[in-house]
Amino acid sequence: MRQRHKPWADDFLQENSQLIVPNAMEHKGKWQQLFNNDHPIHVEVGTGKGQYIVGMAKQHPEINFIGIEIVKSIIVTAAQKALDAEVDNLLLLNVDAADLRDIFAENEIATIYLNFSDPWPKNRHEKRRLTYHTFLEQYKEILDPSGKVIFKTDNRGLFEYSLVSFNAFGMNLEEVNLDLHAIADPLNIMTEYEEKFSAKGQVIYRSRASF
Ligand code: SAM
């Protein structure tokens, strides 16, 4: 994703620490306390500019959402959307998904969304794919036993790789959709990438899997 240099991003993060939570590891096992309720927690890994997680938070006030984004200048855009939407069931973390098990306790999360994750097509970068087995190990640990991993992408190669990776890990594939937009679904919240790629006529894939 292209990033514009935003020197004011640090100030913005500090001024909005009720939304973009600093020191995420301090809240391990205690995330529901920050939301002040016992609703289930859904996490989007690689939130980008936030259209999906903000849309989901508006659509599902009965769920707590946490968006994780590694790039500071991008999470600022997601945070601005969340502030504009005035949602109180969404938090954002400027962290690396490689640290998930330091941020969340075992069974703390109900659903993980992977939306248009970077494909890292070169074999030597396989370990960076968010559906590589080291990430799946973390998802398994932090998800409750009935938890789901829901994955959307336009990238056929990454989709096929991920289905094989889920299967090799012993996950149960509950949905494999090879053309998500073939049937209009008013409940499907589109991500920024999903809008961009589907406007170009690209097929959108979706899978749902559990451990
Ligand atoms: N999900 C958004 C969408 O569909 O429009 C953004 C997709 S973009 C291709 C992938 C996003 O994941 C980028 O914003 C990138 O910075 C973020 N990302 C990649 N690796 C990450 C990691 N290890 N931890 C957190 N975020 C990550």
TrEMBL record:
Pathway: tRNA modification; N(7)-methylguanine-tRNA biosynthesis. Pfam families: Methyltransf_4. It catalyses: guanosine(46) in tRNA + S-adenosyl-L-methionine = N(7)-methylguanosine(46) in tRNA + S-adenosyl-L-homocysteine. Its EC number is 2.1.1.33. InterPro entries: SAM-dependent_MTases_sf, tRNA_(Gua-N-7)_MeTrfase_Trmb, tRNA_methyltr_TrmB_bact. Substrate binds at K122, D154, T191, E192, Y193, E194. GO terms for molecular function: tRNA (guanine(46)-N7)-methyltransferase activity. Catalyzes the formation of N(7)-methylguanine at position 46 (m7G46) in tRNA. This is tRNA (guanine-N(7)-)-methyltransferase. It comes from Oceanobacillus polygoni. The gene is trmB.
